[in-house]
Amino acid sequence: MNQFSYVRPASQQAAIDALTRDSSARFIAGGTNLLDLMKNGVLAPEKLVDINRLPLKNIVLNNNILHIGALALNSEVAAHPLVKTHHPLLSQALLAGASQQLRNMATTGGNMMQRTRCSYFYDITMPCNKRTPGSGCSAIGGMNRMHAIFGDSEQCIAVHPSDMCVALVALDATVLVAGPKGNRRIPFGDFHRLPGTTPDKDNNLGKGELITGIDIPASPFTRNVYYLKVRDRASYAFALVSVAAALDISNNTIRGVRLAMGGVAHKPWRLHEAEKALTGKAPTTENFRIAATVATQSAHPYTHNAFKVPMAQNSIVTALQKAAAV
Amino acid sequence: MSQAPKENPTTPGKKDKHEARRDFLKQSSALMALALTPPLVVKAGENDEAIAGLFEKMPVSMHINGKAYQLSVEPRVTLLDLLREQLALTGTKKGCDHGQCGACTVHVDGQRINSCLTLAVMQEGKKITTIEGLSQGDDLHPVQEAFIKHDGFQCGYCTPGQIMSAVACIREGHAGSPEEIREFMSGNICRCGAYDNIVAAIMDVKQGGHNV
């Protein structure tokens, strides 16, 4: 690892100031992705700003809005009674990711900030527009089995690796951000970006901005939810395809539904059209199959990942069946 | 035949040449660490609790296996490298060094983590437990005993991490069934494939109602 200087600011403002002043500085929280990237030479910040001592760990319910501090650990959030009661989909998604050791280190904010696991992004001897803008994309004509089938661009076909974020986009969470120009709120679906012509930018955070937490609004999705993760081994692997499914069913009718996918796009991929196709319908496998077809109409697979299209369809159907307990 | 790794023999005896070599390495690396420790050049900024420059070492205090340490480390040193290279606590293994194998698992304030993916300077004031801190004198921890009884290893390299993870898995309440154990031990890879015996060892301790 390259050398770097280290600061542990005593306040949120001092942390933001440190990043605003110094363009080569980065926040470090759990460090599970950042240190890995630094060991591989993908990133070489000259200064790390350790935010772990800032008071951003609380998990509280205020006016039916669940607030989760940016530094709440993935393991704490997954096991928290408020999360399990009000948003079990989030708990399931968190437990599908990483290992217990990593969940004991990884934070809510850090999970959102993790970089793609595209092997060409990690391999500093290969061109990668995300790592070195303008150098080219090695995945488009290379080994692209793990890559995007939605929202990709000619410059980047990497996917976002998070499970937690798939649940949060389905639950219409809001990201709370503090920065040099004050505080702002970003709808979760607008936090991460599609690659377009700027694949080096994963999200819409500005210079010096710090995620302070997330808010999740009250929802009827407390019972009929399921997070399905399909991967190369039974546990401790990134998703080939994952599906967050939440249903609000009464009188054999779907009153509300949320669907999102992971492992298929540069950002957590919400399935709005499929949701529309299901609303007001009966929770039957036939209707789930129609929704799955709608959801994958815009799929754009590459040489090695065409299998993800039927896998995504089948996963949507299975996740909805499990959520509905059909 | 598999045999328990003897990183920290509790009974003094004749040392074979490998153990003698290991002792030599430990002593010389400890001396090296002393020789390389420069005078502390650490300043606290107006808005910072702690700060260290590019080439500066930083004071860090932590408890490791019940003992208080006042250390001086470069910011880029991981907790794993501090334990192994500076403190000669080589029971904690470096497998992948990227959080993919679990060989480096230790407990920080009672929670299991991958020591390869955290910086030593981030552990200021924390209580660390490594595999060397698990036994009570000559008495092995029940999970250590169970790994021997159930032959929960072959080469033994992943074993310290497996055992630290297993102890935490039981304490967390995630050892209720073989399925749950497999899921919550999935961060520890065993390339010899001793998984069945590892699960059996953990189930045995859990069902035996041992105080872990």
UniProtKB/TrEMBL annotation, chain A:
Keywords in alphabetical order: FAD, Flavoprotein
Domain of life according to the entry: Bacteria
Flavoprotein found in the keyword field: yes
Residue ranges annotated for the FAD-binding PCMH-type domain, each copy included: 1-221
InterPro entries: CO_DH_flav_C (IPR005107), CO_DH_flav_C_dom_sf (IPR036683), Diverse_Substr_Oxidored (IPR051312), FAD-bd_PCMH (IPR016166), FAD-bd_PCMH-like_sf (IPR036318), FAD-bd_PCMH_sub1 (IPR016167), FAD-bd_PCMH_sub2 (IPR016169), Mopterin_DH_FAD-bd (IPR002346)
Pfam family, one: CO_deh_flav_C
Keyword Flavoprotein: yes
SMART domains with a match to the protein in the record: CO_deh_flav_C (SM01092)
Protein name (database record): Xanthine dehydrogenase family protein subunit M
From TrEMBL, chain B:
Domain 2Fe-2S ferredoxin-type, residue spans: 58-134
Annotated keywords: Iron, Metal-binding, Oxidoreductase
Record field: compositional bias (Polar residues): 1-11
A Pfam family matched in the record: Fer2
Record-annotated membrane-spanning stretches: none
InterPro entries reported for this sequence: 2Fe-2S-bd, 2Fe-2S-bd_dom_sf, 2Fe-2S_ferredoxin-like_sf, 2Fe-2S_ferredoxin-type, 2Fe2S_fd_BS, Aldehyde_Oxdr_Iron-Sulfur, Beta-grasp_dom_sf, TAT_signal
Region named Disordered: 1-20
Gene3D superfamilies: 3.10.20.30, [2Fe-2S]-binding domain
PANTHER family: OXIDOREDUCTASE WITH IRON-SULFUR SUBUNIT, OXIDOREDUCTASE, IRON-SULPHUR BINDING SUBUNIT-RELATED-RELATED
Protein name, entry field: 2Fe-2S iron-sulfur cluster binding domain-containing protein
The organism of origin for this protein: Chitinophaga qingshengii
